Amino acid sequence: MQHQLLIGYDDRHTFLNRLSGSTKLLSFVGLSVIGMMTFDTRYLLGIMVFSLILFRFSKIKYRDVSFVMSVIIGFSVLNLVMVYVFAPHYGVDIYGTEHLLLGSSNHYFNLTTEQLFYEFNLLLKYTFAVPLALIFLMTTNPSEFAASLNKIGISYRISYSVAIALRYIPDVQSDYRTISLAQQARGFEISKKAKFMTRVKGGIQIMLPLIFSSLDRIEVISQAMELRRFGKGKKRTWYMAQKFKRNDYLALLVVALLILLGIALFKVNGGRFWNPFK
Amino acid sequence: MQNQQSNSIRTVVATGIGAAVIFVLMKFVAIPTGIPNTQVNVSIGFLALLGAIFGPVAAGLAVFIGHALNDFVTYGSPWWTWVIVDGLIGVAFGLAKNRLKIANGALSTSKLVWFNIYQVVVNFVGWVLLAPTGDIIIYHEPATKVYVQGVTTWIIDSISVAIIGTILLVLYSRTRTQRGSLKKER
């Protein structure tokens, strides 16, 4: 629990930092949606390489993100194993051919090239957006993020909610730590050594004070905001908002081209899958 | 009019703080069940309370934002189908607000029973019908795998709301003054 959990923003003086938050948000959402839809391995690999190159440019140190990386790798491996256990012939169903590597075709657990290829695609899909997400998280100032949500057309109340969430996560986190230590001092065991039910009980003992103090906090903050006439106007200006510059338009153009390429590949492949076995 | 104004501010703040609390609960109080990506989710118990106090908009948005942020920093990119389903479940919990009328004081047993039946149904629709179907259509994952994940999540989340959610609702309602508890002296 000691490591930094919210991987932090830092001004690293790269061109990625200077792009406006709206650009980065639009690019990230656009690329992750198209990557979510497509199963074209070439395209996914291309995006992956593209985002790794960007990651290199962003000057983010690997050790800052190594913890997140290990979680993501663990998550992907678990999922891939689970897909294999539950549906070892799914690749054969999708690609329509069967190239056996291990076992025979009437066994439940056999290994086909198609299945490996399908799972490789899944792995790419789980991971291709990770460098982009890390870049987005670590080069965008949280306050600017809220401003950019508003800029791309989300109502300012919702943007403000996001701003409040980002602002108060560290506070709630430190409240959580304090309460947890206090309860542990009173003898509640919540570590991995404890039994399942004890952990659940310990969890509840921490939750209750945390939740009730947060409810109080909601009252206090909303009164403070009402006193400052929040929500009286139809619009709101943002201190951290950035104007679009030449580079922003350039970045958006590149991303738009990539997305168009992805859509064009749907046509070329006649569907979401690229089938190298035909 | 005046009241409406302050209500909307409360909704904005409740969304923000609610999202922060959900984020922290998802992050720290996650007890794995053994099936990948399914955890004993205590934050959904909190969601029941949030919905009962602040209504559908706050609860739906709060869990949407909290879950998306949590996925963002844990897995790199949000698993959109589940994030959206979580948001819809928040909205459904929020719709129970008018039925529960938690601000008016102690909850009767019949209301709690009704709420628990309601939440099990809501969780069923969300985790067994919507989320796996979304996974199959959007992410093209094998049906058996996503249904196992969905059913596990349904069971765990329902139990979580039944225990944690109910405790929270009862405790919160006790802090409210019972409606009509004041009498005019004659």
From TrEMBL, chain A:
Q: Which GO terms describe its cellular component?
A: plasma membrane
Kindly state which keywords UniProt assigns to this record, in alphabetical order. Answer: Membrane, Transmembrane, Transmembrane helix
Q: Which PANTHER family match?
A: ABC TRANSPORTER PERMEASE, PROTEIN ABCI12, CHLOROPLASTIC
InterPro entries recorded:
ABC/ECF_trnsptr_transmembrane
Name of this chain's protein? ABC transporter permease
Q: How does it sit in the membrane?
A: Multi-pass membrane protein
Which is a Pfam family this sequence falls into? CbiQ
Location(s), subcellular: Membrane
Q: Where are the transmembrane segments?
A: 25-55, 67-87, 116-137, 249-268
Q: Does the keyword Transmembrane helix apply?
A: yes
Instruction: Please state the protein's primary subcellular location.
Output: membrane
Q: What is the source species?
A: Lactiplantibacillus xiangfangensis
Record keyword rRNA-binding present: no
From TrEMBL, chain B:
| Name of the molecule in the record | UPF0397 protein IV64_GL002508
Question: InterPro entries of this UniProt entry?
Answer: ECF_substrate-spec-like, UPF0397
Record's GO cellular component terms: plasma membrane
Lineage, top ranks: Bacteria, Bacillati, Bacillota, Bacilli, Lactobacillales
Biological source species: Lactiplantibacillus xiangfangensis
Annotated compartments = Cell membrane
Annotated family: Belongs to the UPF0397 family.
Q: How does it sit in the membrane?
A: Multi-pass membrane protein
Membrane in keyword set: yes
Q: Which PANTHER family match?
A: UPF0397 PROTEIN BC_2624-RELATED, UPF0397 PROTEIN SPR0429
**Parts of the chain that traverse the membrane:** 12-30, 42-67, 79-96, 117-139, 151-172
The domain of life for this entry's organism is: Bacteria
| Main localization, broad class | membrane
Q: Which UniProt keywords apply?
A: Cell membrane, Membrane, Transmembrane, Transmembrane helix
